[in-house]
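ASSEMBLY PREDICTION REQUEST
Request ID: AP-0331
Submitted by: J.K., bench scientist
Number of chains: two
Total residues: 1535
Priority: normal
Notes: Please return the full assembly, not individual chains.
Input sequences:
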Amino acid sequence: MRTFPVVFCIANVAILAFAVGQAPKQTKAAAPVQKVDFNRDIRPILANKCLSCHGNDKGTVMAGLRLNTRAGATAKLKSGRFAVVPGNTSASSLLKRIHAPTDSGIVMPPASSNKALTGEEKYLLKLWIQQGAEYKEHWAFVKPTLPAVPKVQNTAWPKNPVDNFILKKLEEKKLAPNPQADKATLLRRVTLDLTGLPPTLEEQQAFLADTSANAYEKVVDRLLASPRYGERMAMDWVDYARYADSNGYQADYERYQWRWRDYVINAFNSNMPYDQFTVEQLAGDLLPNRTQEQVIATGFNRNHRINTEGGVIAEEWRVETVIDRVETTSTVWLGLSTGCARCHDHKYDPISQKEFYSLFAYFNNVPESGTGEERPVNHPPFIKAPSPEQTAMLEKLQTERGLIEMQLGRLVEANVPAAKAWNYEAPKPPATLAEGRQFNAPLTQSSNLKTFGKPVFETGRSTGAVLTTNENYLEIEKVGDFERDQAFSFAAWVFPQSGGAPISKLNVSENFRGWDLFMDGGRPMVHLISRWPENAIKVRAKSAFPENKWMHIAVTIDGSSKAAGIQMYVNGAKVETETEVDRLTESIRVSANLAVGRRTGGNMFTGKVDALNLYSRVLSEAEVIALADQDPIKPIIDIPAEKRTPAQAAELAKFYARKHVPEFPELEAKQTATAQQLSQVEMSVPTVMVMEEMPKPRPAYVLERGLYDKRGAVVGMGTPKALPPLPKGVPNNRLGLAKWIVSPENPLTARVTVNRLWERFFGQGIVPTSEDFGTRAEFPSHPELLDWLAVKFVSSGWDLKSSVKTLVMSRTYQQSSTVSAAKLAKDPTNKFYARGARFRLPAEVLRDQALFAANLLKEKIGGPSARPYAPKGMWDEFGAYGNLRDYKPDSGEGLHRRSLYTIWKRTAAPPNMTMFDVPTRETCRVRRSRTNTPLQALVLMNDETYIEAARGLAQAAISASSNSDDARIKSMYQSLLSRSPSASEVSVLKAAVQKRRARFKAKPADAEKLLKVGYLPTVPGQDPVEVATYTLIASTLLNLDEAVTKE
Amino acid sequence: MKDEQILHLQDAINRRMFIKTSGLGLAALAGLFGKEGYAATPQQGPRRTGGLKKFPNLKPKANRVIYLFQSGAPSHLDLFDYKPGLEKRFGEDLPDSIRKGQRLTGMTSGQAKFPVTGSMFKFSQHGKARIWMSEILPHMATIADDICMINSMHTDAINHDPAVTFFQTGNQLAGRPSIGSWLAYGLGTECDNLPAYVVLTSVGTGRSDDQPLYDRLWGTGFLPTQHQGVRFRSAGDAVLYLNDPDGVDRSTRREMLDELGQLNKIRHTLVGDPEINTRISQYEMAFRMQTSVPDLLDISKEPSNILEMYGPNVKRPGTFAYNCLLARRLAERGVRFTQLFHRGWDHHDGLPGAIRGQAMDTDQPSAALIKDLKQRGMLDDTLVVWGGEFGRTVYSQGTSSQTNYGRDHHPRAFSLWVAGGGFKPGMTWGQTDDYGYNITENPVSVHDLHATMLHVLGVDHTQLTYRYQGRDFRLTDVFGEVMEDLLV
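STATUS: Completed
Returned structure:
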């Protein structure tokens, strides 16, 4: 065998060697050729430079050559030549083509592709053909087997097998590992890593004092058992699951998915096996005997955005939703970007377009429309998800209600005979009906109303109706000119056939100023508007009434300019309403006429209106009933007793009892009270959007070019052929898919998961492209270690805490993170782990750490999202739609909850988090960028959050220690950095204290101003000059590189 | 080993190293300010920082972009695309031969009739180029010979959110980088104390409650976040968190940063991580920004004749006029991509009144910006773009009269103009049918526009890629053709 310089044989090593400038010497040293590894050396070349024209995508294969398989590469070409002849470099036309001159016109890849091969790549291809052109399946698609733990020279170093894999490579690279980090650093590191918070003073002291051999392990066990662990784990998971508190498009209304978020925290804390965690989130709704929590878990695939913009084509967005589920699921569990196959066969990974839509078919059967309502609600399918306390309360109230109903029923029954003999006299309409009446002329031709187009007058329901349609409506002059502080009422019979405004005195082009009755289908709503939407009231009935049926609507407005002062009646009965907008402070008067059948300038109403009444006062309930002609007793009394049905007889008995049996109204009052209580509890029960399978699946199609309306062949549910088949005995549906994902045969799931864990603790994945395990993935730095971790993870029963413990118990993890110039030059990115990881903390941990060290953090697991400090106007600067506007920080504990609970509006996410690389959560992201920018410096220096935390640190340090500057500085170091400051650090800060103190003494007003930042109360008796001084010292500490870094 | 092979390897190492280090933040400045990026090449002028070494890979004609985005979608039929004869067809149902069963939004798809409604405004031709403009744009009329009017734009999206997202990122769905962040990533910046990509927003007087904007429109998608657009605000801190807290003056801040630097250096000597030095320089940059931003915003030294050019609103922060003046000041300071968003163009009803308001907002300042750049000799290498996310229907939404009508969304044909930066001045490109409904000549897609914008900036749009999830993504996806006919 010929020999070749080492530098050619191990591509990755060669690159490293070059980076540190050693290669020229080594090229002279002859060494045995190491065999080319297809997956490590050749696949990346083919994937990056060749397969876009010679790959899986049948549609784009050039010259009939497919290099994605050995059969394809060695097949006879149309020209009669062979691209690859194993072992025969001179007969392989591939080599001729890649070595052809750039301007020859035959060079491959073509010059126009901008994918020229490097000399090294050409050489590796030659070597590969020479050695037999072996193909191997992509490593990540082959089920991992447990590799032998490597033997190492320094047998004393490894603490667990992880270290053998790491040390083996270090010994190969002649890199010596760092010593163990000092105890203080290690404690801060592992506490931040496992809980997202720094250690307390007591924890520091306890660990330093504990000299037992397993002191560190005890800490790890304590941290894994802490409920903060689940919160820290959930912090990553919500990114993956694109979890947020808003719908994410245009108006970006609020939604409520926090019950799902809390499920995730609890699952991590209870160390739910990861396979179960997976199955529950993907298909908990399909499990036999499913629990409420298992259904809540499926919120995972309902966290996607929902486009509710007016005028969207629902199917287009339903398809996007389903595609989002496929992409999210495959990225999170399989590390595969199936999205490419949406439009065509995947060029690099073996996923055909048909297979993509076969995956699509699994997620296609949710009873959903693709769009939704423009208001802050969860969209179907969703479930009520009461807490255990709420469930108990609901059961109690329901029992009570049942008892009352039973008693009422008995009383009704007992009074049927008396009711039969009842000599009922109908009440006369109240005499007051004429008072304050501004209009009640019949809507007939003879009333001389101003007509537009050709409204049709007909008999109607009462005094005569008018039918209004698109262009045909009427106006009434000089009526309805009410101001917002005036009481008024209006009433009419309405026969709705479409949405729109049956009655209005409102001008669309004057910012919708005025008032109206508006029908949203069969749901009446009332607007009082000065300027829509910022100065207006909008109230709507909670439920809809049938369209194409007469209904009597009356609305009374008390002139309070508050939504609470509006009462709506339908058919004489009060209806429950909900308020969407309630901020009216300016005039609602307009010159436009009162219109019947539209608003001035739009919102045409198709339907009929009869008996319009306007009053310049609030009508009483009795008056409304009279207008609605709704005496409920009379119609029954009018039926001869013998002709009444049993139901009518009972109904009459009820009215009779109400008037003549004192116990009956008392019971009814109790019934109402119980119903109110019940409805209050029910209203407070959160809902959560979940998955649900339609009884009959929707047909799924291959969508040409990925377009929703270009349907091709019908496809069924199925998994990609390149991966193992569904496990035996599972159904071929979403549940089967979930079980397939966590089948031990699946080569990807466990690797992808342990790789992300590794990335969390070590700063980069063993596969650096943790979001991609496809053929273009970066080759693992330690392939055997990855497989060892993956196999152990599965065999442990998918035990996450155990895997985490393995990682943090390794000596690799516990190394000091200091780095010498020489080591930095040898391994700038620390991919060989000869030192501990050192990188900036995530946004959430930065804030939580500051709050915790300052004694501000309010710890509480779960619940609705919180509103901490945010820049004024954060939600209003470029949007006037939706309910998430006018951001106001919470006044209580919501200011200081952990960042995991911060309310997340996707189109305007909290800037002090997005600036530190938190994704917008519009789509699935499993890896964050990690940047270092001046904007981040501005956040840490100036954000109210951090200034208040600095004051918290200062006040605590002043309270805790004497007047000694040394002691105060030390106290703050200890709280924030878990260590004592060095003498040189103390001297820098003491000088700083002198300067700050002198300045604030000279300008005490500035000290007072600084102390006003944040809601945190000052401590009585503390000198403002001292607090201000130490606030700025603490602010400097919060900005230290060390403070923002896991060391 | 041959020299050639060594060179190839070296190149591979450089690329690899750069990608790695930028991912870890060593060269993270590249996006936002980019001290550690590549040295400037002669074409880029002396001050280039950040960006990728391979760009520009074409000869750049433009060095920066000012994009005047008109959000909500202005009516091409009432501003630029003159359709004589429609007044005679007022109220007629749009012929099927024109509508061709194309999809409509849910807002008008239920309409029984699609009444043709021509513009109520008078049109006339302007400049040597004889470019048609509506009477409500008297100032734009005076720059006709500086602009390239495209009447044949088309887009895939039919609703606002996806359509604006498509214009900004080349894709209807969230998740891709915005055009400004692509350029910050690829080309870096020529300014060392302001961001590479600045965003300014204003609310239209034509419809003050109009379509919202979204962070993602200037976001980075999967690019590192330092390339995101930095939004300048008209109320509160001009840049988020820019101002020191109450009670802290500039000299105190300076002292605090010195102390912070000293402490960080002490730590660096102990732990050796070069990231610490990067952080020190980021804090210095932040300090500089605290000065450079107020300096940028201080327009008190602008001569009165310049202020008058931009019109009466120029001194009011948060107006389009003020933002246009800032755009020029940002361009002077070397900011790579300045993007204005002016809201208020979504006129489903009451269009004539509302569009007059919008024209009042934008007409004079837009024209002034072109003239101001030109008189400073900056128009040649500054690309200015003016347009919205789609056009509007020739038929009226709901009821209409000849003087009061509304128009629904129309993605199949609309107008947009560009000026400077190597585009041909004084020309009209593309045509639509008699109804302004379908393109009849020289269609220009959003991808084509993007490809051409990158082209004049010296970037081959097929080469500016970023690998994410195994795929090399680019702004133009797999589409886009450079519109050579429009270039000088």
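REVIEWER COMMENTS: Confidence is low (pLDDT under 50) at residues 1-31 of chain A.
SIGN-OFF: pending second reviewer
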